[in-house]
Amino acid sequence: MNTGIRATSLTLRDLVTQKLRRDVNLRNFFDPALGGAMEVSLLAPEDLEAAGHEGVCLWLYRIERDDQTLNQSRRAMRDGVVNRPLPLRVHYLTVPVIDTQHRADGPELEQNILGAVLQTFHDHATLRGADLQGDLAGSSQEIHVRLESLDLDQTSRMWEALNHAFQLCISYEVAVVPIDSALEPFNAPRVDVVVPEYGLAEELA
User: Fold this and answer.
1) Considering its fold, how many domains does the chain have in total?
2) Which domain holds residue 104?
3) Which residues are CB-neighbours of 25 under 8 A, at least 6 positions away?
């Protein structure tokens, strides 16, 4: 399965959407049944703004290999080469996108949204079972969500690189997101005994 990143994004979006639609201070903005038009989006903030929409972005902005678990999950052997999933850590910038020019309560609304997101991932730092969406649904996979500490300089440089005015935001690291190998599993004989004199291995019957 090479759709682990997409499934992780869908999982986070679904969890935050459910939270905002239930929140007593925010449901009128996010629940369509109550006339709410705001959305939880995977778009970059400028793209959501360009579409004329409001809400909160869970924007995937960085992907890196998780070296700590890279050698832990061996699933198969083929021609002497270990076939294992590629474990990833993915990073999401969480940004409220509010039309503050036309909303007198814009800054307060931004802070309410971020407070609700912080509460959501504090209460659900580990996602498993029924939490999982997309191709992770029904699997035994667990993903862990951690608030990242970005200092003002890091955040400022990020917005500068995006050629965008500074906005209130927070960042989350999510681990471990698996990308399975495309190689077919191969059942190699198990090594049970090492013979030191010859440097060889024998298989027990």
Assistant:
1) 1
2) 4-202
3) 112, 116
